[in-house]
Here is the input.
Amino acid sequence: MNISEENDYYMKDRCARKTALYRKFIVTFTSIQISTGLAMRRFRVFVLLVLGLSSHLTSFGNTQELQSLWRSLNNGLEIPMIGFGAHFRTPVNEEELLLRALKTGYRLFDTAWVYPKSEEHLGNALKKWFEEGGNRDDLVITTKLPLSGLRAGDVEIYLNDSLKNLGLDYIDMYLIHGPIGMHRLDNLKSHVYANGTGDFDFTTDHLSVWRAMEDQVKAGRVRSIGLSTFNASQILRIWNQAEIKPSNLQIEGNLYIQQKELRTLCNELGIVVTAFFPIGSNVTNLPAPMDNSVVQKIAEKYGKTPTQILLNYSIHLGFVPIPNTKNPDRMRENLDIFDFELDYDDFEELSALDQYGKYRKFDFEGLFKGSSKHPEYPFADRRSLYT
Ligand SMILES: NC(=O)c1ccc[n+]([C@@H]2O[C@H](COP(=O)([O-])OP(=O)(O)OC[C@H]3O[C@@H](n4cnc5c(N)ncnc54)[C@H](OP(=O)(O)O)[C@@H]3O)[C@@H](O)[C@H]2O)c1
Here is the structure.
């Protein structure tokens, strides 16, 4: 897309104009921040506050709706700076909550073939939203090829199933869900032995799978392709051989696992990094970032909640966070994070709280025993800085 086409695209309506203006300011002032000192940063805070307060609310139908800022992928696709994780860990009224998330203003949704019924729930919510006047072009939908589909010949089979589940004719971001291949059953699910050990496919070949992913872009079924929980050398191996480069990496990322090295690598390659578990999730009893006393002190200073501080900080690190909540008030709370900016000192304090891999929650072993024996297991060392 050239600049004038891009302008046309984003000048469609009043809401989009505001977003474009806001984005221009973010880009401009982010560059300024890199090259100048405190005075400029303070000026930027002021401008963001004024713009943020005046433009991050807009109306959709009869409801007041919040908006995310947007950013670009390396292939020109624009995505919101924050999304909604469509995977609910416990059964709830998923469709209603996803429709609520759409009406709250979320435009990026993350799901996966492997999350039970998640694609169908999202598909049903999207259908209702379209019926009420919502526009497909305003959305960015991510879903993922499961570990049981990591063979070139299986990519299209799983993608078609995802499209059917979602009721869509294209996916915006299609990711390989992880680097470890598994054998599958006839119903496409992973084969797992009775004792919980996975039936792994030790012949996993990332490059042939990637070529099949590229074919899906060429066929128009997918707009961009990427990776999830791949380590640096796996990313580079694909990057160096790819005809269509990865544009998104999804990894665990929050206050306690800040992923500096992977963020730096992806920044250099122009890969946008999505953070799952941005709040710290509730899947284990490891310490929760929102309970950290520094986070709570900073939240008090800005008159925000600890979670808003965590999500704002996540975006400042360059992540696109995809929090999930089953609570409609928290949906708003988690999106209402664009009207303030952390001071340099607060940023430094939060940065010092990184625990690297120590509090990693997602390590594949929790899902499929024996994962760490796969030749493509991404975490050679649980505390590795590089994964
Ligand atoms: N690529 C991958 O391999 C991968 C792996 C895991 C997850 N994911 C994606 O990441 C998404 C998010 O994962 P997640 O839900 O486990 O982690 P999360 O978003 O970090 O945490 C969700 C937890 O935080 C709570 N919460 C949300 N907003 C809150 C707020 N404002 N104040 C207090 N508590 C709040 C929620 O409770 P309430 O519901 O009670 O608010 C829930 O317990 C998933 O939906 C999925 O799309 C991807």
About this structure: The first helix runs from residue 3 to 10. The pocket of NAP is lined by residues 85-87, 110, 177, 228-229, 250, 276-283, 307, 322-327, 330, 333-334, 362 (CB under 6 Å). The chain is about 40% helix and 15% strand. The first strand starts at residue 57 and ends at 60.
